[in-house]
Design goal:
CATH architecture of the largest domain in chain B: 2-Layer Sandwich
CATH architecture of the largest domain in chain A: 2-Layer Sandwich
Number of strands of chain B: 10
Largest interface: A-B, 38 and 42 residues
Radius of gyration of chain B: 20 Å
CATH superfamily of the largest domain in chain B: ATPase, nucleotide binding domain
Order of helices and strands of chain A: EEEHEHEHEEEHEHH
Pfam family, one (chain A): TsaD
Shape of chain B: globular
Number of helices of chain B: 13
CATH topology of the largest domain in chain B: Nucleotidyltransferase, domain 5
Distance between the termini of chain A: 68 Å
Protein name (chain A): tRNA (Adenosine(37)-N6)-threonylcarbamoyltransferase complex dimerization subunit type 1 TsaB
Keywords (chain A): Acyltransferase, Transferase
CATH topology of the largest domain in chain A: Nucleotidyltransferase, domain 5
Radius of gyration of chain A: 18 Å
GO molecular function, one term (chain A): tRNA N(6)-L-threonylcarbamoyladenine synthase activity
Oligomer: heterodimer
Order of helices and strands of chain B: EEEHHEHEHHEEEHHHHHEHEHH
Helix content of chain B: 40-55%
Domain Gcp-like (chain A): 28-150
Number of domains of chain A: 2
Chain lengths: 221, 352
C-alpha cells in the first residue's frame, strides 16, 4: 500500500495505491493552506480506502520544484510518516508527476510543463513522449516564461503557467496541478521495474534571497 | 536518561518557530530526552535570522532531532501519550515545518495533538527545573524576537499580556549594539562578556517608556529602539571626534539600561497586582546583569524569583513538551488535525 502526496503546486493532493490501482484520491486546489489541509486529507483518504496508517508499506512525495513553504510541508510530512511507520520514503520530481498524468491523459507528442514559481517566473521542464511513457529532456529549471526559448514556449504546455502567462505559453493542456494518483501510479511502476527514485529532498532551484551584511553605515550624517 | 513507569503523561514536544529545531520528551514535569539543532551560524553573515535559511534548516534537522530525542529518552515514538508543537507566534515558514511534522506523528501514532503558544511554553519551561508554577505568577519573557510581560493564572489556559515591546525586542537591540561595537552576531553573549570589564553607570543611556506620561499610557510596555539609536549615536560621536570607543563601558551601560527597565516594570507589575512570584525566561535571561538586577530587586521587594537554567531559557522542544504535558494532565481536549501555523498567535491563546 503506497501513500502518495504532493504539495509543490497550489494543490494539496493525496492518493493511496494498492499495487494495481489508485484506490482513493483527494485534492484541494486553489489553496495556500497546505499546512492545515495536508494531514486531514491524508486521514480522509486512508479512511476512504478503509486503511489505517500502519497498513502503508511506503510513502512517495513530490519534491518540487515548487513554492518553498508548501513544498516543505509535504516533504516533512512524508519523512515523518516514514520515520513513525518504519517505511521507505521516495521522492519524485513534481513536474515529472504532472508529465506522467499528461501522458496518461493521451498526450502523444513532445510537451512542456510549466508551474507557478511566483515572482513572475515558472518552474519548467520539457518531455519527449515514447510508447512507454515520458522522458524529461530539459529542466527542471526556473525562468521568466517569456525568456524561455521559442521552441519550448511553442510546445503544448501543462501546468498553471498557461493560466498565468497565456501570451508566453499559448498552447494550454488541461492538466493544471499535480495529481497524487498519477504520482502513485508512476512510483508503483518504477518500483516494480526496479528503477531508482529520488531521495525525499526538495528541489529548490533558487537560493534564499538574503544579502550578507554590508559594512556599517553611520546613522548620523 | 530513562524514566520509571508512572501515571504521568509522556509528551513529545516540537519547536521550530525561529532558528532552533527542538524535540524533547517530557514525563509529567520531568525532562527525559532533549535534542536541539540550531542554524544560528548560517544566519551570522546576514546579521540576523533569515526566514528561508531557518526553514530549510528545520526541514533537514527535524528527523535527526526526532531520532536523537527518542534515543536519549529511551522511548520509541509509539510510547508517547501526546504530541505537542509550537503553532505560533514565530516565523510562518519555520513554524509550518514543525506543525506539519507533529501532525504526521499524531496521525501515524494515533495520539492527541496539542498546538501550543511559544510564549506560554517559555514560561512553562521552568516547571522542568523548579516544579509546578506558582499561580498566579508574573512572567517576563525576553528574547531576540519577543519582549513580553505576562500574568499567568493557569499556565495551560489563562495567560494575559500586561505589556510588550512597542518596537524592537530586547535581543534585537543587543544584536544591533553589538554590530556598532564591532562584536559578532548574535550580540548577547559578546556584549555580556565585554560588559564585565565596564562601568554600568559610565554612560546614562535612556530608559524607554519610563517618563511620567509614558507610564500612564505604556505602563508595562517596553521600547528599545530609542536606546539602540542613542548607543549608536554616542559611539559615532566618539568615532568622529577621533576618540577611542570604550567598548566595555558602552556594553555595560547599555546592558544596564536594558536590565533596569525590564526588571523595574516587572517588579512594579508584581507589586501593583499583589503577586509575589516572578518568572523570567527567554534567551536574554542568559544576560548577567539582567539576572543580578532581577535577583536584587526581587529580594528588596519580597518577590520570589524563578529563572530556569540557560538551556531552558533559549528556544527548545522541552518547554513545548512541558506545556503539552500540563494540558494533558488537566484533561484539556486536543487541538484539531487542521491546526494551522499562526505567526501572530496572541499570547492569550495558550492552546491553538
Amino acid at each position: 500500500m503506497l501513500l502518495a502526496i504532493d504539495t509543490a503546486t497550489q494543490a494539496v493532493t493525496v492518493a493511496v495505491h494498492d499495487g494495481a490501482t489508485v484506490v482513493a484520491e483527494q485534492a484541494h486546489t486553489d489553496t495556500r493552506r497546505h499546512t492545515e489541509l495536508l494531514t486531514p486529507t491524508i486521514r480522509d483518504v486512508l479512511r476512504e480506502a478503509g486503511l489505517r496508517p500502519r497498513d502503508l508499506s511506503a510513502v512517495a512525495v513530490g519534491v518540487g520544484p515548487g513554492p518553498f513553504t508548501g513544498l516543505r510541508v509535504g516533504i516533512v510530512t512524508a519523512r515523518t510518516m516514514g520515520l513513525a511507520l518504519g517505511v521507505p520514503v521516495h521522492g519524485v520530481c513534481s513536474l515529472d508527476a504532472l508529465a506522467h498524468a499528461t501522458f496518461a491523459a493521451g498526450q502523444t507528442r513532445r510537451f512542456l510543463v510549466a508551474t507557478d514559481a511566483r515572482r513572475k517566473e515558472v518552474y519548467w521542464a520539457a518531455y519527449d513522449v515514447t510508447d512507454e511513457g515520458v522522458r524529461r529532456t530539459d529542466g527542471p529549471d526556473v525562468a521568466r516564461p517569456a525568456e524561455l526559448p521559442g521552441h519550448l514556449r511553442g510546445l503544448p504546455t501543462a501546468g498553471r503557467g498557461t493560466e498565468l502567462y497565456p501570451e508566453a505559453l499559448p498552447h494550454a493542456l488541461p492538466q493544471l496541478d499535480v495529481s497524487a494518483g498519477a504520482l502513485a501510479t508512476f512510483v508503483t511502476g518504477a518500483l516494480r521495474r526496479g528503477e531508482s527514485l529520488l531521495e525525499p529532498q526538495p528541489l529548490y532551484l533558487r537560493r534564499p534571497d538574503a544579502v550578507p551584511q554590508a559594512e556599517r553605515t553611520p546613522v548620523t550624517p | 536518561m530513562s524514566d520509571a513507569t508512572t501515571d504521568e503523561p509522556l509528551v513529545l514536544g516540537i519547536e521550530s518557530s525561529c532558528d532552533e529545531t527542538g524535540v524533547a520528551f517530557v514525563r509529567g514535569t520531568t525532562l527525559v530526552g532533549d535534542a536541539l539543532a540550531s542554524s544560528v551560524d548560517e544566519h551570522a553573515r546576514f546579521g540576523g535570522v533569515v526566514p528561508e535559511v531557518a526553514s530549510r534548516a528545520h526541514l533537514e534537522s527535524m528527523i535527526p532531532m526526532l531520532e536523537r530525542a527518542s534515543a536519549e529518552a529511551g522511548h520509541r515514538l509509539d510510547d508517547v501519550d501526546a504530541i505537542a508543537v509550537t503553532s505560533g507566534p514565530g516565523l510562518a515558514g519555520a513554524l509550518m515545518v514543525g506543525v506539519a511534522s507533529a501532525k504526521a506523528l499524531a496521525l501515524c501514532l494515533d495520539k492527541p495533538l496539542y498546538g501550543v503558544n511559544h510564549l506560554a511554553a517559555h514560561v512553562c519551561a521552568d516547571v522542568l527545573d523548579h516544579g509546578p508554577l506558582p499561580e498566579p505568577t508574573v512572567a517576563l519573557l525576553v528574547s531576540g524576537g519577543h519582549t513580553n510581560l505576562l500574568v499567568v493564572r493557569d499556565i495551560a489556559s489563562d495567560v494575559e499580556e500586561l505589556g510588550s515591546t512597542i518596537d524592537d525586542a530586547a535581543g534585537e537591540a543587543y544584536d544591533k549594539v553589538a554590530r556598532v561595537l564591532g562584536l559578532p552576531y548574535p550580540g548577547g553573549p559578546h556584549i555580556d562578556r565585554a560588559a564585565r570589564d565596564g562601568d554600568p553607570e559610565a554612560i546614562a543611556f535612556p530608559r524607554g517608556l519610563t517618563s511620567r506620561k509614558d507610564m500612564e499610557r505604556h505602563r508595562f510596555d517596553y521600547s528599545f529602539s530609542g536606546l539602540k539609536t542613542a548607543v549608536v549615536r554616542w559611539v559615532e560621536a566618539r568615532e568622529r571626534a577621533g576618540e577611542p570607543v570604550p567598548v566595555a563601558d558602552v556594553a555595560a551601560s547599555f546592558s544596564h539600561a536594558v536590565a533596569d527597565v525590564l526588571t523595574r516594570k516587572a517588579v512594579l507589575a508584581c507589586t501593583e497586582l499583589g503577586i509575589s512570584d516572578l518568572q523570567i525566561g527567554g534567551g536574554v535571561t542568559a544576560n548577567t546583569q539582567l539576572r543580578e538586577l532581577a535577583e536584587k530587586r526581587c529580594a528588596e521587594a519580597g518577590i520570589r524569583l524563578r529563572v530556569p537554567r540557560i538551556r531552558l531559557c533559549t528556544d527548545n522542544g522541552a518547554m513545548v513538551a512541558a506545556l503539552g504535558s500540563q494540558m494533558v494532565m488537566r484533561g484539556l481536549p486536543p487541538s484539531d488535525l487542521a491546526l494551522p501555523a499562526d505567526s501572530s498567535l496572541p499570547v492569550a491563546s495558550v492552546q491553538a
